[in-house]
Task: inverse folding
């Protein structure tokens, strides 16, 4: 058997991945610029062709079920560490409650999103992002949430592809709910692109757990704000421990107020499977998706 030498680019990407994991364990949060994460994603299987396709995948999004300024799709995936793979799970409705630090007019409602399609699911960039997240968070000890099953090694990931839109009639709010958590163990947000958006739009503010839920980003006591991050460039990615941090975001503003401004994101909500008594217990099937199967190896 011929063993091929590892390239310098691959060695550098692996070393950087190890460094990012160490920083995540220490700080409970990392922000990775697109220029830094792309070489890692390429080592993990992302192709140049698929990277380019990812910039326009949000063009097929549909109207959001509860927010008029948003287009959306979602899909459920399973980090099966026992079998060293990520696979697509069958469709389920989505719910997020005030009990999980999410206070909004639709808190506790059962929402039904259009499903993520093959154009995103089949993209090697998405596969690499899923593997990247798994490599960073696997085995990291965290503050546990109630009503989640921490006896299993595996995790459920709900992926959202979102476009926030500001136009002459609506102001797009990436987080209308204000200060919140996402009801999960690990949240990852990845920027895909924007059009006509001002340079000071959509700043993410990270708060400690003392910050009061539902406050707007500019109403929070500065003592409770730990930092701010702005997704500006393609694939800029923020990853944090969701039950140890809260966050809020500023609105999307338009450079030219006559034309719509858009901001496209991937949001990866990852948590342990729920147990009975959790609001999502009726909607947490671990069955595979039959019409849109997907399997990505983690090893």
Result:
């Amino acid at each position: 058997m011929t063993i091929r030498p590892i390239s310098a680019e691959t060695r550098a990407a692996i070393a950087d991945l190890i460094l990012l994991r160490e920083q995540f364990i220490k700080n409970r949060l990392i922000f990775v610029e697109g220029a830094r994460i792309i070489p890692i994603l390429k080592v993990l299987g992302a192709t140049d062709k698929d990277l380019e396709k990812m910039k326009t995948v949000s063009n097929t999004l549909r109207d959001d079920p509860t927010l008029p300024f948003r287009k959306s799709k979602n899909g459920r995936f399973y980090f099966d560490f026992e079998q060293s793979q990520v696979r697509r799970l069958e469709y389920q409705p989505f719910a997020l409650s005030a009990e999980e630090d999410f206070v909004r007019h639709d808190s506790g409602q059962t929402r039904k999103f259009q499903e993520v399609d093959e154009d995103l699911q089949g993209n090697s960039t998405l596969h690499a992002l899923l593997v990247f997240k798994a490599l960073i968070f696997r085995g990291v000890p965290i503050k546990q949430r109630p009503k989640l099953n921490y006896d299993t090694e595996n995790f459920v990931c709900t992926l959202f592809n979102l476009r926030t839109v500001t136009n002459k009639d609506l102001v797009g709010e990436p987080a209308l709910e204000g200060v919140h958590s996402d009801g999960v163990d690990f949240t990852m947000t990845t920027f895909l692109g924007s059009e006509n958006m001002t340079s000071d739009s959509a700043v993410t503010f990270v708060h400690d757990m003392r910050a009061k839920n539902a406050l707007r980003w500019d109403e929070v006591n500065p003592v409770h704000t730990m930092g701010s991050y702005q997704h500006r460039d393609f694939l800029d990615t923020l990853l944090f421990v969701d039950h140890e941090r809260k966050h809020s975001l500023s609105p999307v503003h338009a450079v030219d107020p006559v034309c719509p401004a858009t901001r496209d994101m991937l949001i990866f909500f990852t948590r342990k499977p729920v147990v009975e008594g959790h609001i999502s217990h009726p909607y947490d099937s671990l069955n595979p998706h039959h019409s849109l199967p997907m399997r990505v190896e983690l090893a």
The first helix runs from residue 8 to 27.
